[in-house]
Specification:
The protein has 327 residues and is α/β, with parallel strands linked by helices. The protein has a domain at 5-174 and 215-245: Rossmann fold, CATH 3.40.50. It is built from ten helices and 13 strands. The chain has helices spanning 14-25, 58-66, 81-86, 88-108, 144-162, 187-198, 217-229, 253-264, 288-294, 302-315, and strands at residues 5-9, 29-33, 49-51, 71-74, 114-120, 167-172, 174-176, 202-205, 211-212, 214-216, 242-245, 251-252, 270-273. Strands 3-2-1-4-5-6-11 form a seven-stranded parallel beta sheet, sandwiched between helices. A two-stranded parallel ribbon has the order 7-10. It has a two-stranded parallel ribbon with strand order 8-13. Helix 2 packs parallel to helix 4 (88-108). The protein binds nicotinamide-adenine-dinucleotide (NAD). Nicotinamide-adenine-dinucleotide binds at residues 10, 12-16, 34-39, 54-56, 75-79, 94, 98, 118, 120, 122, 172, 174-175, 181, 184-186.
């Protein structure tokens, strides 16, 4: 059988490094494209090539055009929702223009690869949506980050419809696991782990009843492998090639804190701070479509995933307790 080549943009980051490893385990010859702005060389497993490039560069476009990839998993992004609010132009530069550079290069490849885009189910549907959100739910992103993800999904749909490209959007809920960063959409897990290890109180904003849908990174990596190879109907409208990747289960911040305290065997105090203005109260996604079309379902239960994550943070040399909490 001929070698199947895969490119993972953002493959030195948290989720991308797990995606790269999962594709390699599935037999792909994997190349990572990452500018190491938040990713780490150490996250790239041996046997996987690293091309240190910016997704906005002509060199990155050249690699996508000429690399002979069967699939490009596009994860490289600016991932901090607050940064996107503070500097929407910088966010759009990486998250819209960078994505467009990759898509346009893929279109120009002699045999265009399937592009599997990492979108968001946590930040795309917005506050008008009544969870669990399915893929057809109306979309009113509450941040420039969410807008950039939705804009990129529209570009994907356009490339699918007009240029007959093979595109998939995976809309992740709140992804947690080893190597995660406190600034991502499930940053609260990293922050609580670091605080439990440092013996400092867990800060919960408001009453702590706000819910999120926490999905383990290994399950997200497996969703990418399935999306890379699945037989799918022709790409057409915005939501047709989009799949929510979560658990369908809402977990409140208080429940999350209690689970992590159990895992850590620590009675670290919980402190309440004022509710943050504009914070979404309820967010979880329907995963029925991923189940029926991609044959994907999450396998790692929350407690088991939290244990793996906490154990990983414990192995890190100098845990820091960041001064703010993301959700
Ligand atoms: N973490 C979550 O809960 C979550 C939820 C929904 C969607 N996502 C999406 O999943 C993807 C991966 O997120 P993550 O949490 O692993 O974040 P991460 O910061 O660990 O990974 C992003 C990677 O992209 C690289 N990168 C950033 N800008 C780049 C550029 N211009 N050129 C090349 N590389 C660049 C970074 O160095 C990093 O390695 C992102 O697209 C993110 O928006 C994450």
């Amino acid at each position: 059988m001929s070698v199947r080549r895969a490119l993972v943009t953002g493959g030195a980051g948290f989720i991308g490094s797990h995606v790269a490893e999962a594709l390699a385990s599935d037999g792909y010859d994997v190349t990572v494209l990452d500018d190491l702005s938040s990713g780490r060389r150490a996250n790239v497993a041996s046997g996987i090539r690293l091309e240190e490039l910016d997704i906005r560069s002509p060199e990155a476009a050249g690699l996508v055009r000429t690399g002979g990839f069967a699939v490009v998993c596009h994860l490289a992004a600016q991932i901090d929702v607050r940064k996107s609010v503070a500097d929407p132009v910088a966010d759009a530069s990486r998250n819209i223009l960078g994505s467009l550079n990759i898509l346009e290069a893929a279109r120009q490849a002699p045999k265009p690869p399937r592009v599997v885009f990492s979108s968001t189910g946590g930040a795309i549907y917005g506050d008008f949506a009544e969870p669990p959100s399915d893929e057809g739910e109306s979309k009113d992103p509450e941040s420039p980050y969410g807008i950039a993800k939705l804009a990129t999904e529209y570009y994907l749909a356009y490339y699918g419809r007009v240029h007959r490209m093979d595109v998939v959007s995976l809309r992740y809920a709140n992804v947690f696991g080893p190597r995660q960063d406190p600034h991502g959409e499930a940053g609260v897990v990293a922050i609580f782990c670091q605080r439990l290890l440092g013996g400092t109180p867990l800060t919960v904003f408001g009453d702590g009843r706000q819910t999120r849908d926490y999905v383990f990174v290994g399950d997200v990596a497996r969703a990418n492998v399935l999306a890379a190879g699945a037989a799918l109907p022709a790409a057409g409208r915005l939501d047709e090639r989009a799949f929510n990747i979560g658990t369908g289960v809402p977990t409140s911040v208080l429940e999350l804190a209690a689970s992590l305290q159990r895992v850590a065997g620590s009675g670290t105090k919980i402190e309440h701070a004022a509710a943050r203005p504009g914070e979404q109260q309820r967010s979880f996604v329907s995963i029925a479509k991923a189940l029926s079309v991609l044959k994907w379902a999450p396998k790692v239960a929350l407690d088991a995933g939290l244990r793996t994550t906490f154990d990983w943070f414990r192995t890190q040399a100098t845990p820091q307790a960041p001064s703010h909490v993301a959700s």
